[in-house]
Amino acid sequence: AGPPLQNAALRYEQAIRIFRQASEVCIGGPAGASMNLQLLRAEAKAWRSVAYVRTMIGDGMIPAGIDAYLKASAMYKSLGMVREVGICVADMGRVRLAEGNIPQAASLLSNASRLLKMDVVGGDKLEAGAALQYVGELKVQIHLQNPDGWEKCKSGHDEDVDLVQTAIEDLEAAQEIFVAKSDAIPSKVLSGIRWSMGQAQLLVGSIDKAKELIRQALVDESWKAENQHETQQAEALLGRLTGNDKKK
């Protein structure tokens, strides 16, 4: 047996072969068409899983992982599954961010936002909200990891916050969905996005909005219990913003 991630990639690749062979022998008629559609969706999902595992392996597997994401995206596009295409594009942005390719990561995440917002009007609203949150949080990470931004900060120049502004738009759209569906989700989901929005608002200089969002997250005991590191960050940040830090 090989390493766990390589074994996982092999299993997903085997599943893709099975789905393709099954699709080739699928019966005709309405029942066959329905089954073929299910097989195509399953294959697309398997390609995305292969992509994720390959990029996690690293060691020269990143190009193969990106290629698998492109295959998954193409299949989802042919199936009219816009949200899934957007998520695959966001996944590729996450990979480029991990590589330190900030411009390409930012471009991919911008495209992902556009695709996801096209899909908000239909389908599962909670899934749409989760996807927008994923993209918005990645955009904030891109901004924070951008070495050009750090150089500007050190030299006293203003940073470009356009990407963070679009991240806020994504997060606000996700929050709107979560608020509308608050009776169907745990409170920690809404608190998590408020924490993310609080950080983003702080980056664009909206101090009062940031404080209020962080306060709202910190009153949720369930979120705090499952996010102890983030809770410590939020409490320290709120303390600094309100001038109530304890002197050590």
Can you characterise this structure?
With 248 residues, the chain is mostly helical. The chain is built from twelve helices and no strands. Helix 9 (187-203) packs antiparallel against helix 10 (207-218). The longest helix is centred in the first third of the chain and has 29 residues, at 29-57. It starts with a helix and ends in a 6-residue tail after the last helix.
Topology, please?
Layout: H1 4-24, H2 29-57, H3 62-78, H4 82-99, H5 102-119, H6 125-145, H7 147-155, H8 162-180, H9 187-203, H10 207-218, H11 221-226, H12 228-242
Give start-end ranges of low-pLDDT stretches: none
What characteristic shape results from the CA principal axes?
A: globular
The major beta sheet can be summarized as: none
Q: Which structural class do you get from the secondary structure elements?
A: mainly alpha
Question: Please, what is the average pLDDT?
Answer: 89
Please tally the helical runs, counting DSSP H or I stretches of 4 or more residues: 12
Element-by-element helix/strand order: HHHHHHHHHHHH
Number of DSSP-assigned strands: 0
Strand content: under 5%
Distance, first to last CA: 53 Å
Over all CA atoms, what is the radius of gyration? 21 Å
Percentage of residues assigned to helices: over 70%
